[in-house]
Automatic annotation (TrEMBL):
InterPro entries in the record: P-loop_NTPase (IPR027417), Thymidylate_kin-like_dom (IPR039430), Thymidylate_kin_CS (IPR018095), Thymidylate_kinase (IPR018094)
The name this protein goes by in its record: Thymidylate kinase
CDD domains assigned: TMPK
Enzyme class: transferase
Organism: Bosea vaviloviae
Superkingdom: Bacteria
Biological process terms in GO annotation: dTDP biosynthetic process; dTTP biosynthetic process; dUDP biosynthetic process
Function description: Phosphorylation of dTMP to form dTDP in both de novo and salvage pathways of dTTP synthesis.
Amino acid sequence: MHKQSRHKQSRGFMIALEGVDGSGKSGLARSLSAALRDAGHEVLATHEPGGTEAGAALRKILLASNAYDWTPTAELLLMNASRRQHIDQVILPALQAGKIVLCDRFVGSTIAYQGAGRGLSEALILDLHRLTIEDLWPDLTLVLDLDPKVALERSRSRLQQSQIDEGRFEALDLAFHRRVRQSFLDQAAKLPAPYKVVDADRPPELVEREALSQVSEILAERIP
């Protein structure tokens, strides 16, 4: 189990959105950002892999459908390299400035995809997170839970319609994505930081309403 972050973020607050591909994280990130800004908060919305110029370059070689055939360990190291750059250049400055950081994917996705999905040891992933990321964890993680079969159909359709070449993980079999989903649920059950599981198999407005309620409740306790 992880400890609280050693980074100083006394005025800021970090929220991570997690879930299988196609669970609705991107849409929720937009609606939550807007609602939190309307409530008077300063919000920085970002995503992984990516969030920086270097991270965007890594995202292309990690997610493109014709990307290199990375070994699981190489993939893990690249994800952490992107995250370190993201933290130094984007996340920590925003937290230190007292902003709410809303991040579409964080270390939970690494545990789910490179861990449960690819078969790497969770202990290895957590050790690497401590060494390279200095054990920074979100203050709140929202897991959007959806049947992977439904989620994959949504995600593949979105990629096709938008002509975005980021289908490397969507091309993997259903068993992989089922392991990923179970990992997110397991993380919510056993890791100590606040986790909230939201049923994503509902109309977007209902999902957004529940997620905003969960976020508002936690923020009321943590931010005066």
